[in-house]
Structure formats: structure tokens, C-alpha cells
Amino acid sequence: MRKSIIGIAALCALALGAAWPALSGAAEAPHIVPPPALDEKNTAASETAVLAGGCFWGVQGVFQHVKGVTRAVSGYAGGDKEHAIYDAVSSGATGHAESVQVTFDPRQISFGEVLRIYFSVAHDPTELNRQGPDHGTQYRSTIFAQNAEQAKVAKAYIAQLDTAKVFDAPVVTTIETGKEFFPAEGYHQDFLETHQDYPYIVYNDLPKIANLKTMFPAEYRDKPVLVMANASNATN
Fold first, then answer.
1. Is the pLDDT reported for residue 55 higher than 50?
2. Beta strands in 79-119 (DSSP E)
3. Quick one: which H or E segment has residue 57?
4. Which residues are catalytic?
5. How far apart are the C-alpha atoms of 163 and 169, rounded to whole Å?
6. Stretch 25-36: mean pLDDT, rounded?
């Protein structure tokens, strides 16, 4: 049974019964990270990355505002198709992580540059099985590499960031291969853009968009690329 929007937000924040003001200041702090020393060379018209970094609303929202991204879909990866539904994934027992499938033009933005934004403003890669107010393996930091080259670039970048001590703690982002992505329910798509006055979004996710605009002005675009057919109602 489809939950109300309030119920969805409460579950996504793992804040059932808690006051919304408690989420204030929960957004992950942005980090300035260097570009990857190793990046792939891809002249294809399109490439896909699947990234997990906490509640998918914010991660999707960030990449919808990145130039070169043609589509960003919220969903689940790491588990099987049967249990790729919100109620099951929210239990933390299915092996899935809330993820975002990012389709991009590698002639405009490389996979390494996508990862730089992911590590900088989309989430905090030093938090193990949590992001901000959300806790559980379904909120883990994971790169679901789509091929061997992506896995190679991601592994090298994580080692580079750790060696440079960019963060105050080690990067805990894992790399998982051979895992299928399953789109989330329609009510999760474009959630940041269509619910910009919602407390969870205000406290946790809108700061990520502001950080993207400030830290990556050349990559930022004001008008997001949206998923749903009724996206014209979104706030741009």
C-alpha cells in the first residue's frame, strides 16, 4: 500500500515519531577533493554510473543539476529484483542500497568527474552505513561499478583520496560489481525538486544543491533533468 508523503519522509530519515527540527544541521559537510589522477577515456555517446550515498532523494537531486547528465533515476542496487521495493529495502535486510542510476555523456563529463561530485557534495564517504540522520546498510556508500574500467578508476580514486588525507577519516565507500539496478517507485522520483519546502529536503538536501552550485560552477545547471512526466510542476 502506497504510503503518504509524510510517512515516506519519516522512514527515509529514520525519524519516526521524532520532531522535524531535530534534523536541522544534519546535512553532510561538503569537501573540496582533487580531480582523479586516473580517469577513463570514453568517447561513447552515453555511459551509466550507479552510486549509493544515503537517501536517494539528495543524490538524485545533485546529479539532476549536473551538466552532461541526461538522466538520474532513484532506485535500489545490491539485492535481488523480488525485494527491490521500498518497504523491504527500508528494513535493511535485503542487501540493497538506495542508489541513483546516473546516465551521462562522457564527452561532456567523465566518470571520474562524476565521482568527484559524488565524493565532494553528494554525500560523506567516511560515514559507514549511514548518512546524516539515516542509518543502516541500505544507506551505505557504494559505487556499483558497471564494468572493469569503472571499478579500476573508483578503486584508484579512493586510494588517492585516502593517501592525500582529504578527509579526516578513511573513505569507507565500497565497490560492488555485477549488481543490477532497479528503479524506485514513482513517488520517489524527482522528490527533491517537487518537495523543496519539505523539512527533510530543506535540512539535508537543498544544501547539497547550493554546494554544487558554489563548488562546481562550471558543471552546475540551474534547470534539472527530471524523470517524471509531470516534471513541469517541479521547482527549477
1. yes
2. 97-104
3. helix 56-64
4. 55
5. 11
6. 81
pLDDT at 228: 87
The half-sphere exposure of 155 on its side-chain side, counting CA atoms within 13 A, is 10
Q: How far apart are CA 64 and CA 57, in angstroms?
A: 11
CA distance 147 to 120: 23
Query: In this structure, which topology does domain 5-218 adopt according to CATH?
Result: Peptide Methionine Sulfoxide Reductase; Chain A (3.30.1060)
Whether 71 and 103 have beta carbons less than 8 Å apart is answered as yes
DSSP reduced 3-state for 187: helix
**Interatomic CA distance for residues 112 and 61, integer angstroms:** 19
**Residue 192 phi, psi (nearest 5):** -60, -45
CA distance 202 to 95: 29
What is the rounded average pLDDT of the residues 95-120?
98
Distance (Å, whole) CA 150 – CA 65:
22
Distance CA 51, CA 113 (A): 13
Residue 2 pLDDT: 27
Domain regions of the chain by residue span = 5-218
- Prediction pTM value: 0.88
- Rounded distance, CA 81 to CA 19, Å? 34
Are 203 and 12 within 8 A, CB to CB? Answer: no
Give the per-residue pLDDT at 64. Answer: 98
Q: How far apart are CA 64 and CA 209, in angstroms?
A: 10
Give the cell for residue 156: 584508484
Grid cell locating 66: 549536473
- The burial of 151, by beta-carbon neighbours within 10 Å (0-12 exposed, 13-18 middle, 19 or more buried), is given as middle
**pLDDT at residue number 22:** 36
